[in-house]
Write a structure and sequence with these properties.
Number of helices: 5
Strand content: over 45%
Structural class: mainly beta
Shape: globular
Distance between the termini: 79 Å
Oligomer: single chain
Largest sheet: 26 strands, antiparallel, barrel
Radius of gyration: 31 Å
Amino acid sequence: MRFLFIALLSLLSLSSVAQSAGKTQRGYVRGQVYYKESDETIPYATIRILSQADSTQIRAVATDTTGRFNIPLPLGSYIFEASFMGRKSYSGKIDLSAKEPGVTLGKIYLEESAISLDAAIVEVQVPNIVVRGDTIEYNAGSYTAEESDMLQDIIRNIPGIEVNSNGTIVANGKPVKKILVDGKEFFGNDIPMALANLPANMIKKLQLYKEESETAKITGFKDKNPDQVINLVVKEELKQSIFGDVRAGYGSDNKYSNKVSANYMRNDNQISVIGDLNNVNGDDMSAGLDNGIDKNKNLGANAYFHASKKFKIGGNIRYSNNENLMETKTNTQTFLSTGDRYSVSDMSTLNTRESFNMGMNLQWKPDSMTTVFARSYANFNNTHSENSSADLSYVIGGDTTSGNSLRLTRGDGLNVNNFVTVGRKLDNKGRVLSFTFNNSIRKDDSKGSNYSLTQYTDNTPDKVIDQLTNTNSRTNSYNLSASYVEPLGKDYRLKLSYSYNRNDSKRERDVRRKDDDGNYTVVDTAYTRNTKNRYITQSISLNFQADKEKYRYTLGFSIDPSSSSSNVTMGDSIIENLKQRVINFSPSLNFSYMPNDNSSFDFSYSGATSQPSLSQLSADTIIVSALSKRYGNPNLKPSYSNNLNAYYQKSNYETGRFFMISTGFNYTFNNIVNYTLIDDKGNTTDTYKNVSGNLGANLNVMYDTPLKNKKFSINNTTYINFYKNIGYSNGDKAITNNWVLSEQIMAKFKSSKVETSLRAGITHSTSRNNLTDLQNRSTTNYNLYHFLQIRLPFDFSIQSNLSYSYYSGYENDFKNSELLWNASVSKHFLKKKRGTLKAQFYDILNDRNNLTRIVTGNYISDARTNTVNQYFMVSFSYRFNIIKGKSKKSGEENDYEDY
């Protein structure tokens, strides 16, 4: 034992000596890079270390967000080079010796280049994903392939971020509320508009973070549950330019896709004008999740002006005319204690919507102590809908009920929202007083007809419903809130706040059926209702916040009383007159820890109250199909959700690795769920009921890393989700437990000539319900996706997207696989390769299959929806860029064209 101890001690001593010797053989070079004109630091500038002997590259890194770099190097003689797009490079010789192993270069100034884009600079390989405090940054260049790509093409390639069929974005399991461009709003919160119309080649990086509200920005007090947003950082060389593109395409089956985009940027000022005309769902080459066939016409403008240090204003205006034809086949299993009921539905819906939107937002600082935020939004729309369906309902071994229905509706609507926040610093110690007012007015009027025929296989007579409907809805809500912040020393603050919210809604639905002469004059008393609702919610809260260098936390508690009243009438008759009161108590906790610039940990708990919607409260009955109808429940209480979330994320800029793990849990009191009644003929009536016990839990893990050759990278993403959904079927409580497990791995290679990626994924879902005899319903989706782009000589490019999906466990009458292959050949030409001629082949094998599953407390539903299938298109696009530069001779600023 003694000899073993001596041997270990000797090894440790030798190791220490070796480490000390190793340390003495290394040095460093460090400094900070600046713009010469503004004396501002340059983040992500390229730093290269070359050998003096043969000029071979030894190291290449990028500066951090403050322009700093610190590079460890073996002792020796090197050439140092600093460069950045649109700037003259800086270079010099450095010598690292045992006597002077370190060199501090201090401030390095880069001058503006006379011709910004002509000088080709070798760029460092920037990591795919980087953590900057509580912000995740995605390198746009890692997720875009062609100059013609749009923002939606980048988003769909980023692991952990998904674009749903309705255009909404979910990032790491949480919804993204809006998209910003250099911190400024782009068409308000219209995410589909940004996805389809912002060119990918303008974006340097995407930042995912939680944006604080205007009140939080004024008071400095963090929000309890801030919105998640994506900010697009525009490339530096485009921030003093006019740029955009024009595209026109026509193809087989009368397919067309035309788009124009023009953007003006000068310092902090922005103007964007966009136009779009297409019938290919606005998506050229994606694997696709779009539902239905679209015809879109859009024209809009967005602007932001930094008028002075005290005043900033932005706004947008948009006209759209959109048509969607959706054909859906649905198989549904409804859980019943007496035996499950099965239904099959074939539905076709044609929706046309014409709308005009405009919005405005401003920030005004009349003095150093006062800040005013204001925003306003208005929407005017006209809609037309045609819906037809054929339905079957049966119990195994029993009679079958069938039905056919046709509904026509035409309507118009108005929606106006106004918001103002005023904040005032009472002194320089941190005392702040703020007031907020917002108001929302909504009006919807519609007229329509409804015809349905229900037939039974036994002796039950056929049932016919033939109606004309007239529906008028009005909603008016406003909110008043105030807060006061009191500092408690340097790092601690206390906030007292109060809010009052009132929502008044009214819905009048008049339904007429035929008289003996065939005229629609008879009031159908089973479907005619007038409903008035009033919801008043209040909240008084006290919050304590600590803000340290590496961590911060907020503790809060609020009391949230609410009251509601509902009045249901038909003519002069009062059917229901209900009143109720509820008090919720809401503790909250937010904790953030940032040990360094590239890692962070967040933990939060919060509670939130949600009011029922107008359709959930209104007591009138709506015919959904020949076998289905629904009505609201004016006795509903507001729901209260408890949400717990934790995140940890870390990146290493040197190695390019990124790791993230997140988990969440939610539990809802008085959740509003479906209450379904099905008679022995299969006729279904749905309403709503409050129930406590619905919950969800999730665990998400993601890891992204380049390989030794940094042209290769891999990503692995794992999702585990559990949901407990409660509903009611014929009075019985139906409880469905649903497990969803998903694993996805992706490998990617990117060079100047070839880019390819391979993604494989599997998603398994298991559902178990307490009422059904079939205790387990499981599905498994297998996905394999391959992308390839080859840049050929003479500026030709070939691109291929191949996606294979296999669906296991769905109904037998659904196709269980899909092989979707899209390909294109393009040629870049004209000056600066601004012009692109492209031939696109979409769904070459004509095998697209749009299949989804919905799991609730009382049913499981599988649906297949039509979408854009095989077509061929030829298109031409032209990119332009007019850059703000400097003349070589005079040094004066001039505009010049870069084509």
